[in-house]
Amino acid sequence: MCVTDNSEERLSIVQLNSELRHAELELLSAHCATYKLRLRFSAEHLARYGRRDVLRKSIETASALNEYYSSIEKQIVDEEAPPATPAGLTEKQIQQAIECVSSWLQAQRDYHLPSAAPLSQEHRQLMSPYFPADLLDNVRFVELHGARLPNPPFYAEAKAHGFVNLPDIAHMNSMTFLDVLVFNEKLTERSLFHALVHAVQFWVLGVDRYTELFVRNFVNTRFHFLVPVEAHAFLLESKFVRPAGEKFSVEDQVRLWAKQNRY
Ligand SMILES: [Zn+2]
């Protein structure tokens, strides 16, 4: 897979993985239904008494799926490169990484808070169909106008452990430090929406859970935009910018994903 800074391409990779996950869940459900059938009836009975048209259609679908996924499997084997992420990271090291990231988020929040401002009335109004009024009243934001956030001090050590795809903070539009949103350039409607989604995630999950989910999933996926808290922000952002798109509650979406263990 190629790593890209192109946001359209990033979004399509996020969508690809979301649809892949959907297909996986549907397949599991088909697998489960077939397993039940198998437990109750022998293959011989099904062949003899099952409706021919239904059996033929099921066999055709299963064969086509097998063929399709096998062709993908061949490419995985062909393209598989040596793992770029740390092999055998211990649970203790993961815990340390979680603590590091969590303290950094908290420290950055405290550092930027004194220079941060409340959202303008105009921005609050624009975001009110999507976000709770409490949250919009309480968040603060800072625009760095190109001064840009530095990468965290623990990056050097993380890179030494094999984390080669760490998100480059200086090239991101924004970072959300709990309830403080920092924009590397100017705040735009789209970047404000994205940063607010993360603020809702911090609010619903809490900083410890958010950080734990982020770090563990980053270790597994290798790309920060595939980490579910990030992927969800990209998906909701793409819904927000859709012309004449429907209004929706980000808090409901975040609570749903949390409840369904999708983070
Ligand atoms: Zn983000």
Q: Looking across the biggest beta sheet, what order are the strands in?
A: 1-2-4-3
How many beta strands in the DSSP annotation?
4
Number of helices: 11
Ions, cofactors and other bound molecules = zinc ion
Write down the domain tally.
Answer: 2
Low-confidence stretches: none
| Elements, N to C (H/E) | HHHHEHHEHEEHHHH
Computed Rg: 23 Å
Distance between the termini: 22 Å
Q: Summarize the biggest pleated sheet.
A: 4 strands, mixed
Task: Describe the protein in words.
- The chain is mainly alpha-helical.
- The protein folds into 2 domains: 7-79; 91-259, no CATH class.
- The protein has 11 helices and 4 strands.
- The chain has a 4-stranded mixed beta sheet with strand order 1-2-4-3.
- Helix 8 crosses helix 9 (207-221), helix 8 (189-205) crosses helix 10 (228-241) and helix 8 (189-205) crosses helix 11 (250-259).
- The longest helix has 34 residues, at 7-40.
- The protein is elongated, with a radius of gyration of 23 Å.
- The two termini are 22 Å apart.
- It binds zinc ion (ZN).
- Zinc ion is lined by residues 194, 198, 230, 233.
